[in-house]
Amino acid sequence: MTAIDTAEAPAPPRASVRPGLPFAVILGAITGLALMLVAKGSFRDVDVYWHVLAGRELASGSSPAGIGDGWSFAPDPLPWVSTQWLGELLFHGLYEVGGWAAFAAYRTLSAALVLAILAATTLRHRPPVLAAFPYVVGVVAVAAYAQERTQQATYVGAAALGGVIVTGLVRGRLPRWWVLLPLTVVWANWHGGWILAPAALALVALGRWLDHGLRDRSALRALGLSVAALAVGALSPAGPSNITAVLRFARATDVISEWEAVTPTEDIGILSLLLWVVVLVAWSGHGRVPRSEVLATVSLFVFGWMAWRNLVVAMLMLIPLIAHRMDQAYPRFGRRPEPAWSARAGIALAAVLAALGLATVPGQPQLPTTTYPYDLAGRIAELPAGQRVLNDYNLAGIVLSFGGGATRVGIDGRTDRYGAQYIQDYTDLALLKGPWESMLDRLDPTVALLKQDAPLAHVLVAERGWSQQGAENGYVLLSAPTGP
After folding, report:
1. Each residue of 438-455: pLDDT tens digit?
2. What are the pLDDT digits (tens) for 99-138?
3. In what order do the strands lie in the sheet with 447-451?
């Protein structure tokens, strides 16, 4: 080729930048608006109140095995040790520093951390248009279910484990033990969801064996990390029983709604079905789907649909895997580059919107006073000390926090302390099922705080001589004829 030919040869075309608003900025705006809604929401977790009380007792010198011994008058409780003591200490500190408003900051910042990890495992190195749908589903799920509870730590861990599953199955890359194990110890003392860490690594090991055979070194390393992560879960005041705590808890929660199986026609169940549709579409696209990916996807869907409280966790673990499969199935989709500044702009926009939401927190109410009977709980505090309150299951924390220091409840949120049989009998009491009369006589309460439409509330007044002291937000306060 001559010099003239070289000069006249056309230059290779440059990749055109996507016209209009970059997609990364749009995703940043969606993330920021979701975090703003999280910041502006009122309390949704009624257990936060007794978690704060537990943290207060811990801060005053009680051991995790001794807190809450005087909260309930239930007979024959099971041995109980707090497995969430780190989170409860934090909750006490938050309340001491900023009152109830501080929990909005905890809820928002932990949700922001979840979404930051999810963005890194889902959007990074992939066209944002392609990964947008699964990521936005994750944003909606986190915004809908972010609460002032210790389970937020499990949302953070689930988002990170989603990335571990993808990199482990696809590239054989696994987290360093000196990072994984200390974080697992912290998680194991914060929330029972820590068991997902060894479970996810075991899933990676099994998937690698399916794809690469029993001699695969990454599979062996994943199995070793899984066993180590399971073992360090015993580094807790509960000791080795911390490893089996989730099984004891699950057996004691058959009557609690968040442990019921998911129905596909309700809120977050619909989003999960949409994710499944995306998975099927991606599986039908270009490229062979590894057996390990099918195993991981189906396993996480089954886990999520076993209980409502599992669903968001399972979705956070699934979304990076779904984004990876879409990237493999449609390699040419959405490949046009966006401006180099778009990702930074999206992150900045999300941070600004979240900060604006947090700025409104001090001026807005945090307690859901239109949902629960805080005033009725306050009336109990005005009665003589030592009231024995036959309470609705969800009201224990409110009664303990606002009903006076010596007030005791029939049941509280520590389900593994009471056992499945007591919880069932206690629930049947309000519905007048089974041997409810003997259960009522055995408990011998002096006050009842029940749902207004509970059959027991009607019988106590009409047949047992109890008197109604007040009503609020669908609940009634009743006093026994021999009581105050």
Report:
1. 999 999 999 999 999 999
2. 998 999 999 999 999 999 999 999 988 887 888 999 999 9
3. 408-409, 388-391, 447-451, 475-479, 467-472
Is pLDDT larger for residue 57 or for residue 260? Answer: 57
- At 478, give phi and psi (nearest 5°): -120, 150
Look-up: residue for tokens 């064996």? 209
Per the document, the length of the chain is: 484
Q: Which two tokens mark 477?
A: 């306060």
Asked if residue 138 lies in contact with residue 115, where contact means CB atoms within 8 angstroms, the answer is: yes
Q: Is the pLDDT of residue 40 over 60?
A: yes
- Quick: pLDDT tens for 285-296: 877 899 999 999
> What is the four-CA torsion angle of 86, 88, 93, 95, rounded to 10 degrees?
160
Question: Which residues have C-beta within 8 Å of that of residue 357, sequence separation ≥ 6?
Answer: 35, 36, 37, 38, 39, 40, 108
Indicate the pairing of strand 447-451 with strand 475-479: antiparallel
Rg (CA), the chain: 26
Nearest by Cα to 472 from 375, 391, 393: 375
User: Cβ(184)–Cβ(195) under 8 Å?
Assistant: no
Question: pTM score, two decimals?
Answer: 0.92
| CA triple 441-442-445, angle to 5 deg | 70
Q: What whole-number distance in Å separates Cα of residue 135 and Cα of residue 318?
A: 10
| Phi-psi region at 178: left, alpha or beta (left = phi > 0; alpha = psi -120 to 50) | alpha
Gap between the Cα atoms of 233 and 192, Å rounded: 10
